[in-house]
Amino acid sequence: MQYDIQDRRKVYSILGSEGIEIPRYAVLDRDSLDPKHHELVESEDHVEVNGVTFNKPFVEKPVSAEDHNIYIYYPTSAGGGSQRLFRKIGSRSSVYSPESRVRKTGSFIYEDFMPTDGTDVKVYTVGPDYAHAEARKSPALDGKVERDREGKEIRYPVILSNAEKLISRKVCLAFKQAVCGFDLLRANGKSFVCDVNGFSFVA
Fold it and tell me: Which site among 5, 100, 176, 182 is 20 to 30 Å from 12 CA-CA?
């Protein structure tokens, strides 16, 4: 199961099979020998992935969970271009690029951009019955990491709703991890899981 967590395709498949809300998505699998798995039609303000249309803004994620180079593409009405997220380097977690075209090599997940209040919620479970949550400024905003006087990223405690506690339990059990972390997006009155990180401990 730890290996499944390293592949975003498998993560989304497991989440979906457990009835956990996830963003609408499609997989562009350029590693597949079946051409139906890597059909891409790109227009100015949308892409069509294997027959599924995503209007900008949309998100492009590498299928490998180890790859943190996630791009968000903006519509021309918002100035176009893309916000390029990456693993934190100093005080930066993303940069804006004028490039509006999607990447042409590699395999990706394309999904709807979820409009949140500018924060990401990180949830950590210890067994299925305990979950701790905290919020941080979304790296998609301006890419600047908020840090305290000691240089640590500023995070705020979050109270999970009963529905979100149930999601936490489902995620923990689905991925069979004693300790599990995942990202929660609160958008449109719902909570969506968009990433799962697992930890294995050997006694």
Answer: 100
